[in-house]
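Appendix C: a fully annotated inverse folding record. The material below is reproduced so that readers can follow the format used throughout the book. The structure is listed first as tokens, followed by the designed sequence.
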């Protein structure tokens, strides 16, 4: 099997897995945790009323809808590899947001927007699914304006044995899972992709928070190079 075919198989597996989660996703016991982490990321984006924001791996669209409320003069978009998630996300867009929200079925390594479309991009609880994380970050950069902000939220296996063991378990249980990156590894990936001002905003353990018994989290902010940078 070629590297390309392995990559496509992983992508298909991830889409199929989350298709099974799509219906009733926001009613699941774990959903308050995902919404909490998306809100952390959105707060870190520091959106302005006119911002144009993209959620990569948007699921059923909670993050997109939340961003739309914060950008009354801008636009909020989302992409997800799961057709089922996209279908549910589109159904959940309220009429008052319909003109400023767009959600598409797409691969994170092939974002269906022109260069410099967005001022902000976020990715929460999805980065561990990407077999080629540097390529995905470069694609995020492509659709960002120069100096645009990227925020990444993920689990942090360097903080606990539990998260390291959960990472190993997911490689068998969740077919689209690749790996959780330590905070050091994630910094190296961000820098390898050419991002600047890479800042670790949060690195901590959380207990009994928003329906989650235990979690080790990391939250990163970075920017694309400003125009004219070498």
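Designed amino acids, in order:
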């Amino acid at each position: 099997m070629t590297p390309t075919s392995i990559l496509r198989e992983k992508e298909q597996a991830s889409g199929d897995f989350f298709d099974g989660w799509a219906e009733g996703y926001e009613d699941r016991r774990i959903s308050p945790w995902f919404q909490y982490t998306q809100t952390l990321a959105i707060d870190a984006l520091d959106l302005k009323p006119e911002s144009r924001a993209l959620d990569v791996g948007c699921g059923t669209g909670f993050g997109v809808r939340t961003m739309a409320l914060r950008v009354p003069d801008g636009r909020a978009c989302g992409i997800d590899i799961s057709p089922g998630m996209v279908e549910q996300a589109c159904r959940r867009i309220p009429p008052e947001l319909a003109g400023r929200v767009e959600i598409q079925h797409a691969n994170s390594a092939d974002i269906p927007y022109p260069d410099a479309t967005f001022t902000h991009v976020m990715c929460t609880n999805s980065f561990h699914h990407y077999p080629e994380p540097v390529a995905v970050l470069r694609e995020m950069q492509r659709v960002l304006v120069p100096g645009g902000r990227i925020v990444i939220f993920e689990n942090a296996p360097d903080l606990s044995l539990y998260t390291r063991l959960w990472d190993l378990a997911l490689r068998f249980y969740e077919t689209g899972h690749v790996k959780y990156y330590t905070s050091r590894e994630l910094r190296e990936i961000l820098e390898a992709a050419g991002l600047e001002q890479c800042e670790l905003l949060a690195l901590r353990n959380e207990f009994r928070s928003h329906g989650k018994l235990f979690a080790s989290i990391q939250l990163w902010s970075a920017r694309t190079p400003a125009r004219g940078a070498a």
